[in-house]
Amino acid sequence: MMPSVEWAHRLLHFGLLRSASLMVPGAVRAEWWREWRGELWHVRQTCTPTGAASWQGEREVTSFCLGAFQDALCIRRAGGQPKLSLAELIGTPSQCMLILLSMLAACYTVALLLPGVRAERSLWPRKVNPNLVMIENVGTSNDSTPTILPTQFNAWEGRKQKYFDGFAFYRVRQEAVELDLVSVGSLPRSTWGVAHASSNLFTLLGLPVRFADSEVTAGNREQQIILSEKVWKRDFGADPHVAGIQVHLGQRTARIAGVAPDGSLGLPGKVDAWLLGPDAEVRAENPERGYVVAHLTAVGAAEMWTQCVNITANGPDESEEDFLGVSLEEWRPAPMVIYLFALLLALLALPAITTVSLGEYSLNPQKTSWSRKLYRWSFLSAKIALLLPIVYFVSLDLAYGFTTIGRERPVYIQLICTFAMCLFGMRWVLKDQRQRCPVCVRLVTHPAQVGQASRTFLDWNGTEMMCMGGHTLLHVPALPTSWFSTQRWLYLDTSWQFLFAGSTRHIP
Amino acid sequence: MVIELKLQDTKLSHTAAMILQALDAGFVYGFSIMEMTGLPSGTVYPAMRRLERDGLIRSHWEKQSIADAEQRPPRKYYKLTNAGKVTLDASRRRYPLLERLIPTEEAKSV
Question: pLDDT value at position A262?
Answer without folding.
Answer: 62
